[in-house]
Q: What sequence folds into this?
């Protein structure tokens, strides 16, 4: 039998009194219903004694100090639940890096029958292993495990179960799962069916012990550092003290006895050396990715387990995709290092990364269902949108925009205090703000004659 992974009790959180992601708190004859609807998102409803819904807080609660206190505490508890859900989503996603596998009896009790975790688990695809060989990939629908073709699967407690990863499947099976999730209108809490898969390239086989795939990118160091923490990497920020010119972001994978490294170099303007104020560097430049054994011996790329190579390269791609200055719509105008303007242009409108390619696949599926389908189309690296005033090319990777007929750059800075229109559409997975931004900008520009923002309008009319 395969060795079963035993979990510490601290790995399983409180269920917070939830049932299938829902909870009811009574206030005399009234009830406050709480329902998780996504990562960081929830809905609440007041139910009157007759069963009808009431939008506002009942007046008698506001007048009763004890009930008012109970309501305040309940709202805080709801916030805690949403925070915990995000933390558990992140923990489950890390199963890929830690050989996490359960016997089904444990998994059923601690995950499927858990009031909080079931909200995540029922939207994910799982692989059941029987007798260490036979594997069946399923999802849970209406309390029944189903294969991608909709047929039922009935596991027994002796089977083992792990989180499914597309790297273990062929293209046909992955596409089948995408179609199935779309049919069921399931929005996965992590990218799973649409997860990027990174395979060794010929260049990486030739360099043997390192990868330059994600080298020579210019990143905002503060943003990069924050991202590494969210993905459990360790990184010490570079400064302009002149002590070191290089640091290494790294993550330890004890189950595989491997450490992954992403080398980071200093980037500063030597002409301004006299003006250095002994602070952390604003920008850094990326270098190679390497893998080391527990004894600090470099591992050949071909010997790195496929799932580890793919997941590490995915993390690195995410770091670049979010922290690259190529994503900054103000880079040309905000004093960004002028000698690196060429990098900004090449990244902003260049080839798509694996993350952007996945985004493109999702857009291809979504577009026929959108109201802008007749005036929008995918053209290589861009989503083209024909507005009333101009036609636009939205880069699917950086989300930056060029305007026809002369590829004039259009700067639109997203308002993070407002929900993007794309956030209100059904998307196959959570967590890709770039996909929401592309869609939000597409909807905005489809009705460009209705835009009132003077900064945007002046750009639309410039050169016409």
A:
């Amino acid at each position: 039998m395969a060795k079963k992974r035993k979990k510490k009790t601290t790995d399983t959180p409180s269920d917070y009194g939830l049932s299938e992601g829902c909870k009811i708190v009574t206030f005399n004859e009234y009830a406050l219903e709480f329902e998780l609807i996504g990562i960081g998102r929830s809905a609440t409803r007041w139910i009157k004694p007759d069963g009808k819904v009431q939008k506002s807080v009942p007046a008698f609660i506001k007048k009763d100090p004890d009930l008012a206190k109970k309501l305040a505490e309940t709202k805080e508890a709801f916030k805690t639940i949403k925070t915990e859900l995000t933390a558990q989503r992140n923990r489950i996603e890390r199963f890929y890096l830690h050989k996490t596998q359960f016997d089904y009896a444990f998994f059923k009790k601690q995950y499927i029958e858990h009031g909080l975790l079931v909200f995540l688990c029922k939207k994910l695809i799982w692989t059941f292993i029987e007798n260490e060989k036979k594997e069946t990939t399923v999802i849970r629908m209406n309390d029944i495990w189903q294969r991608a073709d909709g047929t039922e699967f009935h596991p027994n407690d002796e089977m083992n179960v792990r989180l499914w990863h597309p790297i273990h499947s062929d293209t046909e099976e992955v596409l089948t799962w995408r179609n199935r999730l779309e049919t069921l209108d399931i929005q996965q809490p992590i990218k799973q069916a649409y997860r990027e898969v990174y395979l060794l390239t010929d260049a990486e086989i030739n360099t043997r012990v390192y990868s330059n795939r994600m080298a020579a990118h210019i990143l905002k160091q503060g943003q990069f550092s924050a991202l590494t923490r969210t993905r459990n990497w360790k990184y010490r920020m570079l400064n302009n003290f002149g002590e070191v010119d290089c640091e290494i972001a790294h993550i330890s994978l004890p189950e595989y006895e491997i450490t992954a490294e992403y080398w980071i170099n200093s980037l500063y303007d030597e002409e301004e050396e006299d003006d250095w104020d002994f602070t952390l560097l604003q920008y850094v430049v990326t270098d190679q990715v390497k893998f080391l054994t527990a004894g600090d011996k470099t591992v050949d790329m071909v010997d790195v387990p496929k799932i580890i190579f793919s997941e590490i390269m995915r993390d690195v791609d995410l770091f670049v995709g979010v922290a690259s200055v190529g994503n900054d719509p103000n880079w040309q105008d905000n004093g960004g290092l002028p000698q690196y303007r060429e990098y900004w242009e090449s990244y902003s409108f260049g080839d798509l990364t694996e993350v952007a390619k996945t985004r493109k696949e999702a857009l291809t599926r979504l577009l026929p269902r959108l109201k802008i389908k007749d005036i929008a189309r995918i053209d290589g690296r861009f989503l083209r949108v024909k507005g009333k005033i101009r036609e636009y090319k939205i880069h699917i990777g950086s989300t930056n925009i060029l305007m026809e007929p002369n590829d004039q750059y259009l700067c639109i800075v997203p308002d993070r205090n407002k929900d993007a229109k794309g956030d209100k559409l059904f998307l196959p997975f959570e967590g890709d703000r770039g996909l929401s931004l592309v869609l939000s900008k597409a909807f905005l520009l489809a009705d460009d004659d209705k835009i009132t923002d003077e900064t945007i309008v002046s750009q639309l009319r410039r050169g016409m």
Q: What stands out?
A: The longest helix spans residues 65-93.
